[in-house]
Design a protein that fits this description.
The chain is α/β, with parallel strands linked by helices. It folds into three domains: 37 residues, no CATH class; 94 residues, NadA-like (Rossmann fold, 3-Layer(aba) Sandwich); 50 residues, no CATH class. Helix content is 40%, strand content 12%. It contains eight helices and six strands. The strands form two sheets. Strands 4-3-5-6 form a four-stranded parallel sheet, with helices on one face. A two-stranded parallel ribbon has the order 1-2. Strand 1, helix 2 and strand 2 form a beta-alpha-beta unit.
Amino acid sequence: MSCALKDKGHKILWAPDKHLGGYIQRETGADMVFWNGTCIVHDEFKAFELEALKKEHPKAKVLVHPESPADVVALADAVGSTSAILKAAHELDAPEFIVATDSGMMHKLRTLNPGKIFIEAPTAGTSATCKSCAHCPWMAMNSLAGLAYVLETGSNEVHVDPALGVRARLPIDRMLAFTAALKAGQPAGALVPNIGAA
């Protein structure tokens, strides 16, 4: 990962996920302040339970989403986004994988990798809340039927002041350009804005 964030020497306010921010900080050395927010799914993964499961499956590789706590990330053989986890599962030579991300990924992992075994990483386990099931209730509210309904009817439209929309696009455009530059092997440091830049 690029050190461009560190090289600029600016403090970065990171939101919404403090675990993902911590991962980025460890990888880049950037000076960051974190919003005290987490993903309700990934925050529930526990290192001590993951270590116990690894002992039961010593040949398994561990795939972890970086929104997980740092002690869980430290146990991973591969850390990354949904697409990075899918890629690692395909490329790593292992018969079994322990996966620390939303359980909705399990079907796709199994479909794309027949003959490999995928085991859900343990969460808080015995608590009586939905957040200990490694399933995000908010993402599960999305559906193709719901998307089609919105596109057909225009319902749930959100109106944003045009001037605010222009300003809101800036960090998104910078983030996408930064990522594209990294993937293309180009220096991304110039894409990290100076303080006071538009």
